[in-house]
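Extended Data, panel c. Modelled sequence:
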Amino acid sequence: MIVGLTGGIGSGKSAAANFFMDLGIDIIDADLVAKNALKKNSRGYSLFIEKFGNKYLDNKKNINRELLRKDIFSNQINKDILEDIVHPIVYDEILDFIANKQSPYCIVMVPLIFETNSSKNYDRILLIDCDTETQIARSSKRDNQNPIDINKIISKQATRDQRLSIADDIILNTSSLKDLYNNVLKIHNKYLELLNNV
């Protein structure tokens, strides 16, 4: 069974994923794979230079992600070009991860399942959900960003209702980490039960 773990910025996806890992579940973070896809001297890096030149490189020839992020959010054409480079690399690595999983089910952590219309790639979608105010408060604290910038990111992501519309399982994460863990444990046991009944 392949579970797609999703949620907006600041919803607590990473905290939930860490709890699943503690329970022995194999997890891959699509965002981290995407980030590594542009590491210096990688295939993605070479393709990036081919398309964008040296404009986004810092003095150590690494990609300046801050500068890139600012430009990409305001330029749909460049966003599409970047996604055409990164997405196939991420897709290949996820397929490889699924083929080699060791746990009874595995989790692919993907913030943008609704936006990429990829819910059909998973057996179940698990949404870590919370209200917008909580998202802004958590993200401001964690990333040291101002609420206006976080609001911009939220406005580019799927709405809460859109995410809820594709979810098979929902964890409302507006309380403590202890509550989150207890909810993760419930879902974990539910998945094991589903697998036993197959």
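DSSP finds nine helices and five strands in the chain. This feature is highlighted in the accompanying rendering.
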